[in-house]
Amino acid sequence: MVSKPYEPDPQTAKRRRFRPIPVRMLVPNLITLLGLCAGLTAIRLAFEQKLEWAVAAIVFAALLDGVDGRVARMLKGTSRFGAELDSLADFVNFGVAPALILYFWGLHDVGNAGWIAAMVFAICTGLRLARFNVMIDDPNRPLWAGNFFVGMPAPAGAITVLLPLYLYFLGVLDITRLSVVAPITLIYTLAIAFLMVSRLPVFSGKRVGKRVSPDMVVPVFVVVVLCIALLLSYPWTVLTIGTLAYLASLPFGLASYRNHERKDAAGMNVAQPGMGPPLQGDSPSLSPAHPSSEQSQGPEHPERPTRLN
What is d(CA 195, CA 157) in angstroms, rounded to the nearest whole number? Predict the structure, then answer.
């Protein structure tokens, strides 16, 4: 006996309809995709030995990465999809692309060691982004911890690791002496990769620029226009100075973080005079008595800091 084929219920057979997505949810993702296009274009330009334009594409991607999160919060268009897309784009833009640029420029002169250094940098970028995604939802971080990154962020790592190329474009590094420059670049690349996956506290700057007083509007416009003009007129000089200044600021970030920890520990001792000092393994940042960080708040919270990996 042949049975009739199964006929599904017409109600369940209806095509599932998704609700329309607001345009404000798409704008931040389009900015992220534009940055991803810049990163992929940088890889192509590196293949073609157009290194100046390849570095410019990485800088452009870094600028877009600092904008998309702020635009998403201004438009209230944050989403889980956007956060995941941002992480994937950052891995390509600030991990794979800079590593390939360095390899095609000079790391290939040291053979397999240069390729290993490029891979280590890209892998450390991926690990840095994965750790950021895990730690951003930690509800036990103190409020002041939102002012710091744990390790050098991926965009800053990409801009910083390209310092040898800036010096090369300025004529400081001699192309005929790449046999000497390449090993130094290899060590420098590994050092920046280590800083990204380290536990070093780094100033985040997330709470800078949220509010501008009326008296400072015109000076801010002048400073921004001046910085853009200098970057376009003297790109390699500005990037070199900015990179060196950023590296010089790392010890100050560590000192500020330790100062916050000491104040936190002192506040706990005052609040609990009979409990004695905290145990050696305890960290003030893990105390449930602290308010949660702005990073642990929901995506729609207006005070959540800019997502910068």
Answer: 8
Q: What is the pLDDT of residues 29-86, one digit of tens each?
A: 999 999 999 999 999 999 999 999 999 999 999 999 888 888 888 888 788 888 889 9
The domain at 23-207+220-264+284-296 falls in which architecture? Up-down Bundle (1.20)
- How far is Cα 200 from Cα 191, in angstroms, rounded to an integer? 13
Number of Cβ within 10 Å of residue 79's Cβ equals: 16
Type and span of the H or E element at 202: strand 201-203
Q: Domain coordinates of the chain in residue numbers?
A: 23-207+220-264+284-296
* Angstrom distance (rounded) from CA 130 to CA 79: 17
Overall average pLDDT of the 256-277 stretch:
69
The pair of three-digit structure tokens given for residue 154, joined into one six-digit string: 């991926």
Residue in the structure block whose two tokens are 């200098």: 230
Residue 150's SS3 state is strand
Confirm whether pTM is higher than 0.90: no
- The DSSP bridge partners found for residue 61 are none
Contact 201/253 with Cβ under 8 angstroms? yes
Helices (H), the chain: 23-47, 51-74, 80-91, 97-105, 112-135, 154-161, 163-169, 178-197, 217-233, 235-271
Asked if residue 94 lies in contact with residue 154, where contact means CB atoms within 8 angstroms, the answer is yes
